[in-house]
Amino acid sequence: MNTFKAYLKKEIIESWRHYKYLILLIGIVLFAILDPIILKLLPEMFKNEINGDLASLIQIDMKSAVQNYIKDLNQISLLIVLLTLMGTLSEEVSSQKLVFPYSKGANLSAIVISKILHYSVTLSIFIITGFAISYYYATTLFHNNVIAFNKILISSILMSIYYIFIITLLIFLSSILKKGIIAALLVLILHIVSSILVNIDKIAKFIPYNLISLANSFSTENILTTIISAILYCIILSIFTMKIMNKIEII
């Protein structure tokens, strides 16, 4: 328990010191502000380039504005998160930063849990905040096809769970590979492969990427199965990571 508290405090301090909070905040929340504004200005920006009424050609409403934010979370924000957090565990192992705490009796399993929990909570807060901001601007600028806030909230929770899975997977792979950039690349590849596999109806509800599909469609179909599956994957990956860390030669 002491190790967990100490490393949780350490992660918070280092995240402030290395501007990780700022980078993650900008990478997730900035698009919530910019997307609705850009979509609103889009017809005006291209009115001289395209003949006719561009507003009638491009139908943009509140729902599509929020969906555009989800698309950015699925692409650009995900890349920012991976690049920012790819060395969370691997750098400490490769640079032997764990030698001193290990020699003092630190519990390596607690270190793993503190890292997963810290960034899971951080990203969840940023994502839910981003959805709330996106909803505010989208409803202010667009008045057609309005989505109820409770559906937006559900979508934000689904995206948060997916990001928790991504963080857990990233830390697991970095514990094996010891190279953050390789771990991040593998997570990105698995993310892309999952986006293809989710089109197979029989297995879609067991694939974590389905959380993004559900968030984007504001649907609750098979939502419980996908959530439970994603949580189970996170638990299994966390256990494997702790076992790997407990067997690794620190000294």
TrEMBL record:
Entry keyword annotation includes Membrane: yes
UniProt entry keywords in alphabetical sequence: Membrane, Transmembrane, Transmembrane helix
Transmembrane segments: 21-39, 76-95, 116-137, 152-173, 180-200, 223-242
Top-level taxon in the UniProt lineage: Bacteria
Taxonomic lineage from the root: Bacteria, Bacillati, Bacillota, Clostridia, Thermoanaerobacterales
UniProt keyword Membrane present: yes
Name by which UniProt lists this protein: ABC-2 type transport system permease protein
